[in-house]
Amino acid sequence: MCLGVPGRVLSIDGMIAVVDFWGVKKQVRLDVIDEPVVPGDYLLNHVGYAIRRIPPEDIAETLAMYDELLGEVRGGGDDLMAADVRGELAGAGKADV
Fold first, then answer.
1. Residue 14 belongs to domain with CATH number
2. How would you label 16-55 residue by residue, b for 16+ Cβ within 10 Å and e otherwise?
3. Under DSSP, is residue 66 helix (H, G, I), strand (E, B) or coil?
4. Which of 12, 19, 25, 87 is buried most deeply by CB count within 10 Å?
5. CA proximity to 6, closest of 20, 17, 16
6. Are residues 12 and 34 in the same domain?
7. Is 97 part of a structural domain of the chain?
8. How far apart are CA 13 and CA 75, in angstroms?
9. Residue 7: φ, ψ to 5°
């Protein structure tokens, strides 16, 4: 299963954005996104590439869904999506997974 992760754009330098994913800051490529992105926007990241800008009206619902999923991740369990998120966070060096 592949998982896109939402994050908030902190800064942009050319086609590279620094994005905050729940306290983990990573560089994300903007090559494949088809609309302008500015600091403060939220985008969906997949393997280091922004795949879409999350519309402002969808941000609260999207983040709430991921917060719920992260609660399941931290709680353990056999949910496959939670296991995938656990792997993504572990790969990002997030220690509290």
1. 2.30.30.140
2. ebebebbeeeeebebeebeeebeeebbbbbeeeebebbbe
3. helix
4. 19
5. 20
6. yes
7. no
8. 37
9. -155, 160
Model pLDDT, residue 76: 58
42: containing domain: 5-54
- pLDDT per residue, tens digit, the chain (97 aa), is 467 889 999 999 999 999 998 888 999 999 999 899 999 999 999 889 999 999 999 999 988 888 787 776 556 556 655 666 666 666 655 544 4
Could you give the CA distance from residue 51 to residue 44 in angstroms, rounded to a whole number? 6
Tokens describing residue 78: 């056999």
The pTM for the full model equals 0.72
Question: In the chain, which residue ranges form alpha helices assigned H by DSSP?
Answer: 56-74, 80-91
Rg of the chain in Å (alpha carbons) = 13
- Secondary structure (H, E, C), 12-69: EECCEEEEEECCEEEEEECCCCCCCCCCCCEEEEECCEEEEEECHHHHHHHHHHHHHH
